[in-house]
Amino acid sequence: MSEDAVLVEEKAELESSESTQQERTWQPIILGILCNWCSYAGADLAGTSRLQYPESIRIIRVPCSGRVDPAFVLKAFRKGFDGVMVLGCHPGDCHYAKGNYYARRRITLLQDLLKALGLPEERFHFEWVSASEGNRFAELVQEFTEKIRRLGPFKGVVTPEKKTL
Amino acid sequence: MRIGVFVCWCGSNIAKTVDVEKVVEAAREMPGVVYATDYKYMCSEPGQNIIQDAIKEHKLDRIVVASCSPRLHEPTFQRCVEAAGLNPYMVEMANIREQCSWVHDRTPEATQHAIDLVRMAVAKVAKNEPLTRSRLGITRKALVIGGGVAGIQAALDIADAGYPVVLVERTPSIGGHMAQYDKTFPTLDCAACILTPKMVDCASHPLIEIWSYSEVEEVNGFVGNFEVKVRRRAKSVDESKCTGCGLCLEKCPVKDIPSEFDEGTGTRRAIYRPFPQSVPNKPVIDRDHCRYFQTGKCGVCQKICPVGAIDYEQQDQVVTEKFGAIVVATGFDVWRDERAMAQFGYGKYPDVISSLQFERLMNASGPTDGKIVRPSDGKTPRSIAFISCVGSRDEEHGYPYCSKVCCMYNAKQALLAKDKLHDVQTYVFYMDIRANGKGYEEFVRRTIEEYGANYIRGRVSRVYPDGDQLVVKGADTLLGRPLEVRVDLVVLATAMKPHDDAKELARKLGISTDQYDWFSEAHPKLRPVEVLTDGIYLAGACQYPKDIPDTVAQASGAASKVVGLFSKEAILSEAMTAYVNEDTCVGCGLCVEVCPFGAIELVEVVDREKSTRDNQVMKKVARVNEGVCKGCGTCAAACRSGSARLRGFDTKQILAEIDALADAALAGRQ
Ligand code: FES
Question: What ipTM was reported for this prediction?
């Protein structure tokens, strides 16, 4: 880092209030469910390209975004994850031709359901990331992590505990 | 349950950021883990030995390897544990390199992340079940898409090994771009002299069928068992009758269609073959230009044909064939964007031409019989400027990549121009000279030293006319001064680019492309010929710009992959396929609808719950054809009763990962 950059950063740090300081240091735990062929490969590419992003995301590999059962997402929120991301291939690029279209339909319904249940839909993110978009993946994690930091830790919803989701 | 965890340092790739020993310690505490250790390179032979020895010594029944991406080494470790007597699907990997150590730089956080990933893998592997793969038959016939030198070479190699091949080409003749070239660098062999014998070999090979004027419409199936629909466009010429005498070619009254083969430097008729040595050497009627098809009046070719081969009634035929493997060799296109090339006056001034057009002008069978003349006035140019990197290495107007062959053909064209027109002055504007092939650097030196080409390092900013000449304005960056050169002819080394419909073909094949639409190989270094879909291979410049030797080498590589596949007795099916629990299935058919592969059908079975000994009650349930299932899991996500399940990515495995992570990472939070 150049000297200027260091100075700018220090200044920004001094000026920032305590709460933003906290925001910066608090590390949310985000669950990422990624399809194997595009998004997981994209995340791998971010690694191979040595792009840095926050330590917040924990990735589960699934064969296709079409495999994502909305129950996985509900389960994650019930368990108290601060955010959940589901990433799949761009429309038309799904390794299994149509899986991501089904995913999109299910996820749209899921988003409505989250709203209806009083679950935090803003903590859920669904996106296309291709195998060549290492950059985009790193940026997405960065942006989503910052968003979740602003929202603060997920405290859960006040609903009677169900047996299973 | 006895789980073993093996944490890899990957040299310093992981160990530099992640505290590997801490990860091992944490792993020892995880449920079900009875053994954990670390090693510098787990994938190496000694590393694999460590795993195999531990399996025996500690009676491990499930393995977690924490190292690189499973997309890289999962098969390696599956083979490793299989050799030690475990089912290969009792391995899970924790990706602590690509998705941890390489993207983080703070050791405590990265170590925590790595521990979490290991924890998830341990939780998942605890739920793994041994899987098996079934044996499937192979259709030992190959489809080669694209009849350029890549497709030709691949077809010949496969056929020579004794397997039948269908070579599909969309233009009326095979030969591709190479047939358009005059001579080839660095040996100056004439392209036709080395290519046409191969084309003829293809045509006469008993195991090769050439389907020219045809295009692939639809691809279904999977390795060993593809089903491909090919549209064989109506040629309007009955090939079984046509003798190729060429009488029709002389008499067709529509004469002024720009010839695609000559890159518009010459013309062709409505009934035509692209070039005299075309294979097959029988003409086709271009219905969009044919007077008979456009106005209903003419019919000259039909009247004149001595054998009655002209057939205006012919229809496109859509043929469905089975193939075991597919070689994609669809090649490249050249950049033709006139708007983006406005600074060079391409498309505006007739004496600014592309390198491919210049090839046609130099070629003895081209429109000028090999005489280099200016398109504007037919005069012999006394000076020629060659401009490299037009559209290549130019993020702003074209493509950021290097087209790889332009430096070499610039040198070749400058040399040949001098050879043909002794008193011509040649100028080559270049950014860098990239001459990295056998004999390439020497060739460029020869062009400069023996053939007196003026090499000028610098970008050209503008080309504009002055009198009947063109002024090339640029800078000489070695001398650090602006420069203007007046020339009679300007030749642009336009970028190689993927075909406009490359993406569409990729979709039909179910393969992926990169950001420019070049087809993506399975691994950039170790699997450059394969794609991620088994049974489909790449050859030539459809993957990325290549010269002829690289193209031919890759084509032979693809062919040997096909031959290797065909020489197997059977193919093993996917292990991670879906299945249906028929006891709980209610036969709603939702999974049948969503399956992208049509692998699920409804069948009638005896309802075991409702049947009694004397009264059989039937019910409908879904059943998966495991040979067709590719394991996407869309059915499992759609099933309302939880009866459709996906092996390897079962709901209970995924939920176990979520649970394990939540219990550890979020513990004490709320
Ligand atoms: S494989 Fe990526 S969404 Fe289907």
Answer: 0.84
